[in-house]
Automatic annotation (TrEMBL):
Keywords: ATP-binding, Cell inner membrane, Cell membrane, Kinase, Membrane, Nucleotide-binding, Transferase, Transmembrane, Transmembrane helix, Ubiquinone biosynthesis. Residues 123-499 form the Protein kinase domain. Pathway: Cofactor biosynthesis; ubiquinone biosynthesis [regulation]. This is Protein kinase domain-containing protein.
Length: 519
């Protein structure tokens, strides 16, 4: 009870700061029931004067509320389906920059995490070169066994940040429950689920061993990509509170003048940004979900290098197929196929019309093809898409929304390098390659093989299931002998049926395999 009161007052403070800084201006009153429209009107009356200049209202409010809310805002920047496109682009500019904590504290964190004094671990350990709400980065040098010197980036956890985040997270959970209770329409946006996704995301981000693992996985996936690479983590100098990796010497992608001065081709880099992201998403199903210019560099060899792997996205095989076919459908202007894909994936309820949904998709796709590449606003395209999904009761797919928002950020980075870039032309080779590989004859054979393995697993489990059933019957026989005999007869019939079902499944699997090989 006392905890609830504390959360209530903290939630009221959050609401007051949002209102005071003008963040409620993003809320559309026409979507609210009467009692919430009144509350919004009262909240808007609290706005302080002179809010037009400087950072956006949501940026100001969350910065004032503290590091946990800054992190929450960065997460919501990937969820325009919840906050709207205008607020999402306001949040996208949110700077996670705070003053660094003292050098001696950072050294104590490193020594506690790695179990040795800093002077024994590194030849040199600099003052912080960058600081954020969760951690700060130091530049360090070490000597390898052969005497060669290496330059490293050492990311150090900010002391006390976990405790602060857990406290603020309880308030966010409380506010999510309140929002869901006050507005039944909010159920589609799943506010409580969103907070839990944030909690898991940030708690993973606060274990640097997991970030090192993400870095390692992405490096393995892209090892054969000639135009993209990932820094190597140093596992011996990495722990929960410390992440050590290769130091990247390069030019940030938001410095176009320096890129041109260094002799790199910005237009080629723009295509590389788009295609690298799509290869990660469609080919590998594991993508960097925070590809803003501050996390992307071009090295001396002209290779694109990504850093900061705290926010990653995953797509399953079905989602990757969905994405590839959607992109190809827009490229080919096959809106009926795009609509059918949504229905086949179960994203749109079956009671809606495929033709009506195709008509709505056409309203999104045709403006893309009737304008020059530099005139297409992906922000407007996404706004239309979210309006359409709401109209057709399409439930929120977190992984797809994150991917769509990341795609907009990636396109913005690429366009800053090449204002004439056509994202769809850049995407087509990657999409066609994946579809040819996975939906062609080879992909069909592999799918048939996976189906056969699934059937084999089911068959292998039959003896174990029969043994469990026999034990259950013996145990039950002690209590009701007559009922046990009846169950035994049922079990024998089911066992015979299982044998014939297994043979039928094997026959089907062999038939599918032969059809796939014949295609």
């Amino acid at each position: 009870m006392l905890g609830g009161i504390v959360h209530l007052f903290r939630g009221i403070r959050v609401g007051f700061v949002l209102a005071r800084e003008g963040a409620l201006a993003f809320v559309d009153p026409t979507e609210l029931p009467p009692h919430l429209r009144l509350a919004l009107k009262l909240g808007r009356s609290l706005e302080r004067p002179g809010l037009g200049a400087g950072a956006g209202p949501v940026q100001r409010a969350l910065t004032r509320l503290g590091p946990s809310y800054v992190k929450f805002g960065q997460f919501l920047a990937t969820r325009p389906d919840i906050v709207g496109m205008d607020a999402a682009f306001d949040l996208e500019k949110l700077q996670d920059r705070v003053p660094p904590f003292p050098q001696d504290q950072a050294m104590r964190v490193v020594e506690a995490a790695l179990g040795k004094p800093v002077r024994e671990l590194f030849v040199s350990f600099s003052e912080p070169v960058a600081a954020a709400s969760i951690a700060q980065v130091h530049k360090a040098h070490i000597l390898d066994a052969d005497g060669a010197e290496r330059v490293l980036a050492v990311k150090v956890m900010r002391p006390g940040v976990r405790e602060r985040f857990q406290r603020d997270l309880q308030v966010m959970r409380f506010m999510a429950r309140v929002v869901q209770a006050l507005s039944p329409k909010a159920e589609r946006l799943k506010p409580r689920e969103v907070v839990e996704i944030l909690a898991r995301s940030v708690m993973m981000e606060m274990d640097f061993r997991l970030e090192a693992a993400a870095m390692s996985e992405l490096a393995q996936n892209t090892k054969d990509d000639a135009d993209f690479r990932v820094p190597r983590p140093d596992w011996e100098l990495t722990a929960r509170d410390v992440l050590t990796s290769e130091w990247i010497q390069g030019i940030r992608l938001n410095d176009r003048a320096a890129i041109v001065a260094a002799g790199h081709d910005p237009r080629a880099l723009g295509r590389t940004v788009i295609q690298s992201f799509l290869r990660q998403a469609i080919r590998d199903g594991f993508f960097h979900a925070d590809m803003h210019p501050g996390n992307l560099f071009v090295d001396a060899d002209g290779i694109l290098v990504a850093v900061d792997f705290g926010i990653m996205g995953r797509l399953g095989v079905n989602e990757r197929r969905f994405l590839a076919e959607i992109l190809l459908g827009f490229i080919l202007r096959d809106y009926k196929r795009v609509a059918q894909i949504h229905f086949e994936a179960g994203y749109v309820p079956a009671h809606h019309s495929v033709d009506d949904f195709a008509q709505a998709i056409r309203a999104i796709g045709e403006p893309i093809h009737q304008r020059r590449a530099d005139e297409i606003s992906m922000a407007k395209v996404l706004t239309l898409l979210f309006d359409v999904t709401a109209l057709f009761d399409m439930s929120t797919r977190t992984e797809l929304v994150m991917l769509q928002k990341t795609m907009v950020v990636v396109e913005g980075v690429a366009r800053s390098l090449d204002p004439q870039l056509d994202m769809w032309t850049g995407a087509e080779p990657v999409v066609r390659s994946w579809i040819a590989r996975n939906l062609g004859p080879v992909g069909r054979i592999e799918s048939a093989g996976r189906a056969a393995l699934t059937i084999a697993d089911v068959v292998a489990d039959i003896p174990d299931l029969a043994l469990r059933l026999r034990r259950l019957i013996v145990r039950f026989d002690d209590q009701a002998p007559g009922e046990a005999r009846r169950l035994a007869n049922v079990a024998r019939r089911e066992q015979r049926r299982a044998v014939w079902s297994t043979l039928a499944l094997w026959a089907i699997a062999i038939g599918v395999l032969m059809l796939a090989m014949r295609s």
